[in-house]
Amino acid sequence: MRCLTLAKALEATGGWRCGFASSSETESMVPSINELAIRPLEIDGSPELEAQMMATETPDGCDLLVVDHYWRDEQFEKICRPWAKRIMVIDDLADRKHKCDLLLDQTLGREPNAYQSLVPDECRLLMGAQYTLLRPEFAAARGKALERRQTSRLIERILVTLGASDPDNVTSVVLDGIGQSGVEAHIEVVMGRNAPHIAKVQEHMARLPQPATLHEAPTNMAELMGRADIAIGAAGTTSWERCCLGLPTLMVVTADNQSFVAEQLERAGAAASLGSAQGLTAATVRDALDSLLRDEDRRHALSVRAFEICDGRGIDRVMLALAADGDKSLWLRLATSDDSALMFEWQNHPDTRRFARDPHVPAWDEHRSWMERTLYDAAVLLMVIMTGDHPVGILRLDQIENPGTREISIYIAPDRYGQGIARRALDWARGVFPGWTFFAEVMPGNKASHALFQSAGFSPISETRYVNQPGEPMN
After folding, report:
1. Neighbours of 312 (CB within 10 A)
2. What are the start-end ranges of the H helices in 182-309?
3. What are the pLDDT digits (tens) for 340-373?
4. Distance CA 209, CA 256 (A)
5. Which residue segments constitute the domains of the chain, with CATH numbers given?
6. pLDDT tens digit sequence for 427-448
7. Which of 33, 63, 187, 198 has fewest C-beta within 10 Å?
8. Which SS3 state, helix, strand or coil, does residue 253 take?
9. What are the start-end ranges of the H helices in 81-194?
């Protein structure tokens, strides 16, 4: 699912065609991979055979090979190198060597030194929950979820999600515990359609004293999590979805590779652990749930800490990292609250304010509130222009009508005027999102900005407005 999220984001730029090479089970478990431009290639064999099959399928090679496989290492990646221009590895175990250009580990608390001896020196490491690959609907639901958690303390819905397949039927144990607790809430259970114990789960649901609904492979997980008040779930990738929406959670470790995640989330105060699925009892679930239900302050604290861990914009950060391709002479990163003071200073400089659409000079509190709203707005990409490790400007893309149509705003640090940074940033953004339509609004007297957009290939559509359509060359 995390690879599918990345593939769809790449295709949404209008510049990539993506496909999967995976086992025969994948298409039945995740049928939406058929929505991608390239039909899935079924592979299931030795590393050498799989690499050969992919090379045959893509005789012209690929620009990016993403390897997300716990049983593949540098041996496999070396075999693929002749036909893969770049290789990105997704890992969360840090237990084997890789031969790759980028490595993503979205585990909370993971430090770069965990891979120091496992990857080449030139490999770029993307570490931590800030890079979590979540579908865009989670970032879009974040603001509403925050408002709900701040204003409501009622326990009306409990979400149970122990993995798509749940081969050990942990769900039934959890349901028994919920039933024993006597909590007055609606229980919503999420499972995959092909989960082996789904019939047993339905039997347990029928015996619950609480009303219960089963959701089979739902496409609205962000909605289900956003309206839930407590979750009982596996400490896997859904942990980051729950964090993004600030959902107080009782975690169950259902696989060995989830132990580190559970430890880190509990240490951060963002979730409470029920321990391993092996040996989990209904009584354990009942007691932990009773304790959480009685402690409103604890639920609130879990929610606040969870919100701080993952903002749902990891996919944007990974996309920008892929676009940078190791070149840090000029690159873009997402803005954070830590950039507020610097942006405030730049925005209030007379040369910047002179041509602003809103001539009002904001006070610090106004600016801070605007910054918070903007960072929560999934329809806005607020980016800092960087040269090396130094911020030199701001590039903002606001969605208009649809995700592929954006209004572009740009300003440069006053001490970096006249260095061609704005033009390079425009070219960079256009290269990252070649299928997007960009509009720009320029005040009449701003001769430098008019010249900038004209030189960059934007076409005037009025005295103050410019457009650059997909396929139109940058001059």
Report:
1. 24
2. 198-207, 221-227, 238-244, 259-267, 282-294, 296-309
3. 999 999 988 887 777 677 777 789 999 999 999 9
4. 33
5. 2-131 (3.40.50.11190), 136-309 (3.40.50.2000), 327-468 (3.40.630.30)
6. 999 989 999 999 999 998 899 9
7. 63
8. strand
9. 136-151, 170-181
